Amino acid sequence: MSTCKQSWSWSFLLLGGCIAPLLLFSCGPPPNEIIECEIGLWSEDVPHESIASDGSTTAELVFGFQGFLWVDTSLRCLSSEPSSAAVTMRVTIANEAPFGTTLPEVVFTEVSAGVILSEQVQVRLDNSEGPSIFIGELAEIVVRIEGGGYESVFEARVMLADDDPCIDTDEEPICPDDDDSADDDDSADDDDSADDDDSTGDGS
Question: 121-124 and 69-77 as β-strands: parallel, antiparallel, unpaired?
């Protein structure tokens, strides 16, 4: 009798030891589903332009009026989820230290069956040393998205360029031609004033 009781006791102990870890893991969140994504270039006319894998695609640097510097991109994934996700980006250029940006919530919209596209995503660069160090350089962009039980890590390489002289603002961009026009208007006003003064002098 005592031997049988002891055997049952050990059986319960062993069974409990096996079940407890299973219960522990089953109560935690399930692992994220890995989805396939890519980063592309964004513009008002083309919301997503795929980037060539060999780094030959040129990305335009955008200058903000407060000194910010970035590249406009968008993210495309093969999924119907998530509707929003946290996005972390790391940019490495030549011998410069990597520069990271985290966006806590980027909105995705389904653009076709099983394909979602993000809103405009700004890949920020460290502009503390001026933009000239980036022009003509190859930038490696590593992106991680996570949200709604989904995640993805992917990267792309682009050649940075500055072909657009305008400065981006919240409203209309400021371009050098606009400044020249303003200067011309001021000069014209000055000339008109001078002519008026001359006319007044002749009359007296």
Answer: antiparallel
3-state DSSP assignment of residue 25: helix
Please state whether the predicted TM-score (pTM) of the whole model is above 0.90. no
204 in a domain, yes or no? no
Quick check: is 194 in a domain? no
pLDDT tens for the 204 residues of the chain, in order: 444 444 444 443 444 445 444 444 455 667 889 999 999 999 999 999 999 999 999 999 988 777 789 999 999 999 988 789 999 999 999 878 899 999 999 999 999 999 999 999 999 998 888 888 899 999 999 999 999 889 999 999 999 998 866 765 565 666 877 555 444 445 545 555 545 555 555 554
Residue 41 sits in a domain whose CATH number is 2.60.40
Q: How many separate domains does the chain show?
A: 1
